[in-house]
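= Paired protein data =
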Amino acid sequence: MLRNASRLIGLAVEATDGEVGSVSDLLFDDRQWTVRWAVVDTGGWLADRQVLLAPTMLGEPPPPDDERRPFRVALTRWQVERSPDISSDEPVSRRHEAQLFEHYGQEPYWAGGDPFSGVGNPHWTAADMPAPAAERDEHRTGDPHLRSAKEISGYLVEARNGDIGEVEDFLIDPAAAWTIRYLAVDAGRWLPDRRLLIAPNWLSEIDWQSRTVRIDRCLREIKEAPAYDADSAIDRAYEDRLHRWFGQPGYWI
């Protein structure tokens, strides 16, 4: 089942021995369009402290009809408290990610194993992390492909011949390694109360400097695409119509 990122942000996170905070953001890889980390604000428990938890640590989100329930993680408050600290003012480096995986006893997603198996490699340490020459700056200063879901909200969406609207939300598939399946676009600029879905691989360009995403389609084609209802669950019949409209194969094929 696809889940709205906006409805996952804000959910409480509960360890085995008590609450640790709430999800304040989701960080995703803009090449794979996969959520890599949930940013957890620990609130008053750990003053001015944020921690990162990988989706495999969060497990399945609460059901849509009971989104007041927390994420329940198989960690103790002590483990969360002792995790490597992050700064909201600095990008997350690959070295920091390596330290996090080592702390939580999990193999990193770049090490060639299954990043969502939840099975740690007791012989792996942060010192084993490969660092090709082209990636050394990334290891030290931050991964330029790790993006904030909250930051992308509000990006302008442009068609071939004009503006469509703004990015409003992401639709995430937690059952498939937390892949981002669609960007939800508010097309209210020219179609009141109209929302559309666009898959990331249909985009022709993302201009991070101007906060703009572009799709090489005309406005008329997009205007007549199947509408998206944020209050209704997305089913395969709707997705099939959407993919057929844009002439794209389904990711489920």
